Amino acid sequence: MDPMPIPVKKPKRHWKSYLFLIFLGILAFLFYSAYNPSSFTGKITGNVIRDPTSFEGGSQVRAELKTSEEFEINSEIKKINLRINGPASFYIGKQKIDVIKDNSASIILDNFKGKVIISPGSKIELKGDSSTIFFDGLPISLDSGKGINTNLIDANYAYIKLIDFYLPSLSFETSGKIDIDNGKISVRSEGDKIKLPDFKGDLEARDDLIKIKGLVDKKDVNKLLESVS
Amino acid sequence: MDKKEKEAWLNQPKLQVRGSRKIYLIIYLMIIILITAVIVIETSDKPLNKNATKLVFIFSIICIVATEIHRFGHSYEVTNTALIHKKGYFSTNYKRVEFGAISDSEVIQNIWQRIFSYGDIEVHMYSKVNVEVVKGINRPDEFVDFLENKIEAHGGRKR
C-alpha cells in the first residue's frame, strides 16, 4: 500500500497586505499633496508630479493685470520683498513691531512657507514661516535654523514682490494684458476670471497693478486662454 | 421509475451560485474611503493633486475589475446527481462530486460573515481526506438545505 501523500502547504499569499499598503500609499499621497502642494515641485517627485521648470517647452507668461478681487497664494516662496506703510503691526514670533503712521518699513522674507493674501486697496495679509527676516535691513534668524513665524495683518503695501514660487492653480478676476511666449500669443482680459494652472515664477504688486512673470506648462496654455475667452 | 417520474425528476430545479460580492467589502471600503478623501479635498480650499486623483481612479477601476474577474472565475452548481465546482476562465477546471460520495456538510461563518449573511461550506466526503469547499456564498444555510434535499431526492446517503 502506498503511503498517504503529505499535503503540501501552499505559500501564503500576501496580496491583501500589498493591496492595503497601496491603499495607504495613495491615501497618504492624496493628503500630503493637498497639504504640501509645493513639496511636489522638488526633485524627489519630479518624475511623478510635473515641475514647471522641467516642462518640455514650457510657455513663458507675462501679464500686467488689475484686479478688484482678493487672491490668496499658499505656497513656498523663495523670497518676499515687501514695503509696508504704517500704521501696521508685524509679528516676528511673539514679538510685535509697530510701524507708525506716515512711516514705512522694508521687509524681506527668505524661504517663506505659508499664506499671502493680496486684497484690493493695496491690502496685504501674510502668515507663515521664514528662514531669515530682514526688517529695515536688520537680519533676524534663529540659531537652530528653524523657521521663524511671521505674521502681518491687514497692512497696506507700497509694493510686494514674490520671487520664485509655484502654484498648482491661481485664479482671480482681472483686467489687463497677458503675453504668452514673448508676445506670440497676446490676450486682453476685461474683467474675466483668469486661471493660471501649474504656474511657477514671480509676482509683483504695486498699487493695484499686478505683474506676473513665469512659466506654465504648454499643455495648460489652452486652459489659460479658455478662461479669458 | 416510470417515464413521468423520470421527467419530473429531470425537471427539478438546479441551483447555481457564485461567490458573494460581500467577500470584497474591505476592498469596496478602501475605494469608498479614497473617493471620500478626494471629495473632501475638492470641497475644501486645498489643492487636489491631479496625479493623486488619477491614482485613486486607476486603483478603484483595477479593484472593481479584479474582484469581478475573481468572482466570475468560480461557480458552484447543485444538479440532480452531483455538486459541480467550475473554476477558471479560458481553461476551466471542472470538479464533480457525486451525491453518493458526500458524507456531510458544514457551514462555516465568522461573526462578520454572520452579520452579512454569507459564508463558506465544507462538503465532506466519505474518504475523509477530500473536502470540497464552497467559498463565500450568500445564505450558505439555504445552499446546504437545497443540497441536502437533493441528496434525499437522489436516494439519501449511503449507510
- Spatially, the strands of the biggest sheet of chain B line up as 1-2-3-4
What percentage of the residues of chain A does DSSP assign to strands (E)? Answer: over 45%
Task: Determine the number of helices of chain B (DSSP H or I, runs of at least 4 residues).
Answer: 5
Percent range of helical residues of chain A: 10-25%
Largest sheet of chain A: 11 strands, antiparallel
Average residue-wise pLDDT of chain A: 77
Low-confidence stretches of chain A: 41-50
Distance between the termini of chain B: 22 Å
User: Which CATH class of the largest domain in chain B?
Assistant: Mainly Beta
* Rg of chain B (C-alpha, Å): 22 Å
Judged by helices, strands and strand pairing, the structural class of chain B is alpha+beta
What separation lies between the terminal Cα atoms of chain A?
A: 88 Å
Count of the separate structural domains of chain B: 2
The CATH superfamily of the largest domain in chain B turns out to be: Pleckstrin-homology domain (PH domain)/Phosphotyrosine-binding domain (PTB)
**Beta-strand percentage range of chain B:** 25-35%
SSE order and pairing:
The complex is a heterodimer of chains A (229) and B (159).
Chain A: H1 15-35, E1 59-67, E2 71-85, E3 88-92, E4 95-99, E5 104-119, E6 123-130, E7 132-135, E8 138-141, E9 148-180, E10 185-206, E11 209-216, H2 218-228
Antiparallel strand pairs in A: 1-9, 1-11, 2-5, 2-9, 3-4, 3-9, 5-6, 5-7, 6-9, 7-8, 9-10, 10-11
Chain B: H1 3-10, E1 15-18, H2 25-43, H3 50-72, E2 74-78, E3 82-87, E4 93-98, E5 102-108, H4 111-115, E6 118-125, E7 131-138, H5 140-154
Antiparallel strand pairs in B: 1-2, 2-3, 3-4, 5-6, 6-7
